[in-house]
Amino acid sequence: MRYYDTFESPIGGMLLAATERGLCGVYFDRQKHHPGRGRDWKHDPENPHLKRAKRQLAEYFAGRRKTFDLALDPAGTGFQKAVWQAISGVGYGETISYGELARRAGFAEGARAAGAATGRNPIGIVVPCHRIVGADGSLTGYAGGLAKKRALLRLESGTPDLLSAA
User: Fold this and answer.
1) Are 87 and 127 spatial neighbours (Cβ–Cβ below 8 Å)?
2) Does residue 74 contact residue 122 with C-beta atoms inside 8 Å?
3) Rounded to an integer, what distance in angstroms lies between the CA atom of residue 57 and that of residue 65?
4) Which of 86, 129, 133, 155 is catalytic?
5) Is 24 designated active site?
6) Does the pLDDT at position 159 exceed 90?
7) Domains, the chain, with CATH or none
8) Of 3, 17, 36, 119, which is least packed with CB atoms within 10 Å of its CB?
């Protein structure tokens, strides 16, 4: 069973999903790889994982939270989970390349594979895949769209006008 609720961020609506064990999805509306709500999903705005995620996301977008303290339960392969774990170690306001991400995940020669795993990250923002950039520092793919990636990086840089980037 998955539980879900929605969250309105300053850069667009989001679908949040949780299992009994923790948060398993944070998706922008119409993002790439958006799962949609399945028949076994139950709307539950009182779910403790979802309530906590909504509170922490609100704090993040208000500039008052730099790290998340949430139980997570993402579905993925062992490789994907290793990459997502490495992404979780990239600090607020920091960016690294896909090559560096692959190295941190223990797959030094796997920059492209790390990029593919990054694109499948089901817990965007909380697992901050927007902090992964091209080797030359360029903004490359983001399942939520490059405008949202730019807005999130701008928020973390302390630029006050978040919405101008979206």
Assistant:
1) yes
2) yes
3) 8
4) 129
5) no
6) no
7) 2-61 (3.30.160), 78-165 (1.10.10.10)
8) 36
